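pipeline stage [seq->struct] | target=DUF218 domain-containing protein | organism=Priestia filamentosa | residues=336
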Amino acid sequence: MILASLTAVSFLLFLVSYLTDKRRILNGFLLTISILLLMVSITVVVLKVEYLEPLKWILVLFAILFIFLTPFIIVFIAIYLIRNGRELIRKEGKKPTNLLSLTLGVAIILLIVSYAIFSQYLFPSIISIILVIAIFYGFWFFCYLVSTYLYFLHQPFRNKDFIIVLGSGIIGEKVPPLLASRLDKGISFYYKQMKRKGKRAKFIVTGGQGPNESIPEGEAMARYLRNAGIPSDDILVEDKAVDTDQNMRFSKEIMEREKRDYKAIFVTNRFHLFRAGLYAKRAGLSIDGIGSKTASYFVPNAFIREFIAILFMYKSVHLLLFIPLALLGAAFLLYL
């Protein structure tokens, strides 16, 4: 009864949180906790009710399989991340931001090997603390993925006055495939809204000029839209922003100059959708986004990068969460 009540309460909290604001990692956390509590509740019922005896053996089998397969699954994930990292480096170069999936894969392998070798002999408490921290942030990464997927499932209404397309870097004056996918997604929304609602939206293409770029990203994006048949009157260029935070704030200024009461969406790649939503919230924009597809080899590294960026966005909160773990580790060391 208590477990069932906790499950219902946690799911109710999830619904309230999600319907209030879809841009929260808390949504993924509450949904994950609700599912875990539901699974525990079902397990308790099966174990207590006599006529469900056959299901008990199924639960035992699942438990054995879970315990047996978990180490192999972790190793498989590590190997996949290493292979993905190598593919990304081969196709995109050895930029620091392209090394994350490879680094994480190697770190998982090193942690497994270190725990197997040293946990019984040298520095057992230190290895255990590292393992606890890894599990803690692994859990939050999973919650982040759930929150991202929930946010991606939401499809904004086609009643928008503005379509904000976030810049992502250009090559000289050329729009690369990653940025083109964002623009194409915005173009698709533009025409579908015109067809179904008869309402034309204005594009805001936002992005300044980087050190290796011949023109501002906003101007290159505007050229792409014109070449795709979008009228110049429906294109507004923001050419000063250097990051997502400025993309949102500067776009807000443009929209407020153009129209007093407005509805808008932003367009970015799927992996960037959730964090961009957080920046929109910070800028005071009550808008949601739509995500464009990304090459599959790019996705794992991109999600890891986005998660790290979100940790830094809320570094004070995570520092407070990290302190109890550090104190627990110190207590272990003093005890030993």
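stage status: PASS
auto-comment: The first strand starts at residue 162 and ends at 166. The chain has two domains: 72-153+296-336, 162-294.
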